[in-house]
From TrEMBL:
Top-level taxon of the source organism: Bacteria
Residue ranges of domain N-acetyltransferase in the record: 14-153
Protein's name in the database: GNAT family N-acetyltransferase
Pfam families: Acetyltransf_3
Entry GO MF terms: acyltransferase activity, transferring groups other than amino-acyl groups
Organism this protein belongs to: Pengzhenrongella sicca
């Protein structure tokens, strides 16, 4: 039995469905909402590259290296973006939540907060994780602030950690939430979501 198995996670604002090629057109539309692929600090696929990115994630999922989700609005049924469980480590009961992006119109609506609540809840309550990581570019202040607002603590910075498509080097900031912190983090996320209900 693999550590990560496809699962559907349902909230009040957002539903996370296992990624499928059937989601291609909706994901293209979500990425076009804000032309997200043009943001220098993220790696959102362009409309022309969306199919290849979905296929890449599905291959990695088949190899038990990730579990990718498509985020749907519970209110409209519209596709909002993607998020992923990465780097699953069954022996040490750890994983990372990342490769997340959402249409510009979905930002600050509570859907991303609820997505994190659903993913963290599944990781800690169902998969019995002892820690969940988040990673982002050192220069992505918006992402760093959002991760800190979740209640994650910064573990450190991996300097010159990866080479980006343009050849520049990325310093990666690593955050985590550990199991003993999960009850407080969950309460904080629920309180933040109350404003969107």
């Amino acid at each position: 039995m693999t550590f990560l198995r496809p699962v559907r996670l349902v909230g009040e604002l957002v539903t996370l469905e296992p990624l499928s090629l059937d989601h291609h057109d909706g994901l293209v539309a979500a990425a076009r909402d804000g032309e997200l692929w043009n943001l220098w600090y993220t790696a959102v696929p362009s409309p022309d590259g969306m199919r290849a990115e979905i296929e890449r994630r599905l291959r990695a999922q088949a190899d038990a290296a990730m579990l990718a989700f498509t985020a749907f609005s519970c209110r409209s049924g519209q596709i909002l973006g993607m998020t992923t469980y990465l780097a699953p480590d069954a022996a040490n009961r750890r994983l990372e939540i990342g490769s997340t992006w959402n249409a510009r119109s979905a930002q600050r609506t509570g859907t991303n907060t609820e997505s994190k609540l659903l993913l963290l809840g599944h990781a800690f309550d169902e998969l019995d994780c002892i820690a969940v990581e988040f990673r982002t570019h050192w220069l992505n202040q918006q992402s760093r602030a959002a991760i800190a607002r979740l209640g994650a603590k910064q573990d450190g910075v991996l300097r010159s950690h990866s080479v980006l498509a343009d050849g520049s080097l990325r310093d990666t900031v690593v955050f985590s939430i550990i199991a003993s912190e999960w009850p407080a983090v969950r309460a904080g996320l629920r309180a933040r979501l109350a404003a969107h209900r």
